[in-house]
Amino acid sequence: MGFLKKLFGGGEPKKYVDKQGIYFYVVCDNCGTRVRVRADKQHDLQNTGSGYEWHKTIVDSRCFRRIHTVVQLDANHQMTSHEITGGRFITEEEYVAAEEADKQAKLEAESDSEEAA
Ligand SMILES: [Zn+2]
Fold first, then answer.
1. DSSP labels for 44-85?
2. Rounded to the nearest whole angstrom, what is the distance from the C-alpha of residue 62 to the centroid of ligand 1?
3. 26: CA distance to ligand 1 center in Å?
4. Is 74 left (phi over 0), alpha (psi -120 to 50) or beta?
C-alpha cells in the first residue's frame, strides 16, 4: 500500500521524462493507423561509430501488416535519414494533432443528437 500511496498521494504531479527512450511516429500505408513506437537508446539502437541505427518491424493494431524501417540517427539521437516500407513517418506534432482531431470527431459524433448550449 505504501507504494500506491506514494504514486497517488498528493504533491505536485511530476512530468515523467523518458530519457532512455526515443519515440517515432508512423502511419500504416494500408489502413492509416498511427503507431507510436518507442526505441530504447541502450537496447534498441546499434552504435555505428558516428551515430546510431535503428532496425524495426512495426505492426499496427488494425491490419497487422508489417512495416519495416531502418533509421539513421546522429550522435544526438536525431533522425538523419530513414527507409521505410509499408508506412511513413510523421512528426510528433502531426501525430498529436491527428489524435486530437480524432478525439474531436468522436466527441462531435457523440453529441450529434444533442443541442449544443
Ligand atoms: Zn495497417
1. TEEE-SSEEEEEEEEE-SSS--EEEEEEEEETTS-EEEEEEE
2. 5
3. 10
4. beta
For 3-44, the pLDDT digits (tens) are: 555 555 555 667 788 999 999 999 999 999 999 999 999 999
Look up residue 31 and give its DSSP letter.
T
Quote the ligand 1 centre to 39 CA distance (angstroms).
20
Can you give the residue ranges of every domain in the chain?
19-109
**Residue that is written with C-alpha cell 453529441 in the block:** 111
Give CA–CA dist 30/103, Å, rounded. Answer: 22
Q: For residue range 41-55, what is the model confidence (pLDDT) as tens digits?
A: 999 999 999 999 999
Residue 9 CA, ligand 1 centroid: distance in Å: 40
